[in-house]
């Protein structure tokens, strides 16, 4: 069995099968296919050629290939890392307000005058010095797909529910995403400052969904909060840290970085700007990174306060300049040792994308993909 990616070149296929490229080309000719050395082959051609040489093929997606190549970390290389938390919930239930409150009280406090910009990901330090990384996810149904992806890099999900409303369709969806991803949930019952707020009614609705919160004798942590006044927010963060402690989150900071793209866009003057979450390893300025079908050398990195960084370790969200295009939210990124390696994978991914868009008869340019974010 030969494990290959689609669009491997005739030359690479030959070396994988340990035959000369001339043999591959000759075989192709005898089958009526005319290929050149560097021509990339589609799945059908690869299957036929491999069969001629007595191989069965199994197609690996580029990402699976990356995971397979991922070296295992030994226990002594692993160090504690901060939890990555996603705030999810129905439209207008207060996700952004909660994050804003946390940022205002926990982030800008230690850096007065800092320019806070919206980058969709933040890291904060609680009053007792613990780090927590947050992802802000858009609340509209159109972003369901991205949100589902968001749950994948998340260690803990905060489900925000407005106490003056009810469990809404997107609340259920958020709960569902967290459950499917196996991510522990903490319920933040928000807007308790409002006169018509009824947190007990929300807890009852949760109980009706088989989600018993702790005060009701269940296993789910919940916290009444007001994102407006800040009531209960410290307690909520303590609960996040408690949940994280149970998970024993660890990563090896001493290797080339891997992680996920949060968002990316083209900025006039700065070029392509990507917000990424480093999940393992340490990303450094000058590294060659590949994200989705785009690669480049990291020219500069910034935290969410706009402060320049020279490196970023596990569970750190950063803005990165230097990619040759805008990857999609949810794409994974990885640092490569050589530009050649990154370029090769980038090319085959780009080709895959082109092929896919041709198949669906939608001619989406990569630029348009970037603009959609
Ligand atoms: P989307 O991103 O559109 O899904 O909304 P969201 O969940 O981020 O909600 P957002 O934080 O934008 O809040 C929606 C509205 O509720 C805003 O007008 C907030 O000012 C208000 N709000 C949020 N939290 C509270 C709260 O704790 N108390 C009160 N009184 N109002 C709140
Ligand atoms: Mg919002």
Automatic annotation (TrEMBL):
Superkingdom of source: Bacteria
Binding residue positions for GTP: 89-96, 136-140, 190-193
Domain Tr-type G per the UniProt entry, residue ranges: 80-248
Localization, UniProt: Cytoplasm
Role according to the record: One of the essential components for the initiation of protein synthesis. Protects formylmethionyl-tRNA from spontaneous hydrolysis and promotes its binding to the 30S ribosomal subunits. Also involved in the hydrolysis of GTP during the formation of the 70S ribosomal complex.
Family the entry assigns: Belongs to the TRAFAC class translation factor GTPase superfamily. Classic translation factor GTPase family. IF-2 subfamily.
Name assigned to this protein: Translation initiation factor IF-2
Organism: Fontibacter flavus
């Amino acid at each position: 069995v030969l494990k290959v990616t689609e669009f491997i070149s005739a030359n690479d296929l030959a070396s994988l099968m340990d035959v000369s490229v001339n043999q591959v080309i000759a075989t192709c000719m005898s089958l009526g296919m005319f290929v050149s050395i560097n021509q990339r082959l589609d799945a059908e051609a690869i299957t036929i050629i491999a069969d001629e040489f007595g191989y069965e093929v199994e197609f690996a997606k580029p990402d699976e290939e990356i995971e397979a190549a991922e070296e295992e970390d030994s226990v002594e290389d692993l160090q504690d890392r901060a939890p990555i938390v996603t705030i999810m919930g129905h439209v207008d239930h207060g996700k952004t307000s909660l994050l804003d409150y946390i940022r205002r009280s926990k982030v800008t406090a230690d850096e007065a005058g800092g320019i806070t910009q919206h980058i969709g990901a933040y890291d904060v330090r609680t009053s007792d010095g613990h780090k927590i990384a947050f992802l802000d996810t858009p609340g509209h149904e159109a972003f369901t797909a991205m949100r589902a992806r968001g749950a994948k890099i998340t260690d803990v999900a905060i489900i925000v529910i407005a106490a003056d409303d009810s469990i809404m369709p997107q609340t259920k969806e958020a709960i569902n995403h967290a459950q499917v991803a196996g991510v522990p949930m903490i319920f933040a019952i928000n807007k308790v400052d409002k006169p018509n707020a009824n947190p007990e009614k929300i807890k009852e609705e949760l109980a009706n969904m088989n989600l018993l919160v702790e005060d009701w004798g269940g296993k789910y942590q919940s916290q009444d909060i007001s994102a407006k006044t800040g009531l209960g927010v410290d307690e909520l963060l303590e609960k996040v840290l408690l949940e994280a402690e149970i998970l024993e989150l660890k990563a090896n900071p001493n290797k080339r970085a891997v992680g996920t793209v949060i968002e990316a866009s083209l900025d006039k003057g700065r070029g392509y700007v990507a917000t990424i979450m480093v999940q393992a390893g340490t990303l450094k300025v000058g590294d060659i990174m590949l994200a989705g079908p785009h690669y480049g050398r990291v020219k500069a990195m910034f935290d969410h306060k706009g402060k320049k960084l020279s490196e970023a370790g596990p569970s750190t969200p950063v803005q990165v300049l230097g990619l040759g295009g805008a990857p999609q939210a949810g794409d994974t990124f990885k640092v490569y040792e050589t530009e050649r390696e990154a370029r090769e994978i980038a090319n085959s991914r780009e080709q895959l994308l082109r092929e896919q868009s041709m198949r669906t008869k939608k001619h989406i340019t990569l630029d348009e993909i970037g603009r959609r974010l």
